[in-house]
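Translate sequence into structure tokens.
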Amino acid sequence: MPTCDHCDAHVSERFARVFTDDAGALRACPNCSANAGIAEVSQERAFQSRL
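Result follows.
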């Protein structure tokens, strides 16, 4: 089961698939960051993938 690189909390496979960066790092999870920040990262990555 994947874990957050920041706080070592377990996250779901689905969460890890969406929020890991290109290097495979999961730098934040709902346990250690604001959900608003996670949403911003998701939007930024969606924008970058369209370029």
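Note: The chain has a mean pLDDT of 82.
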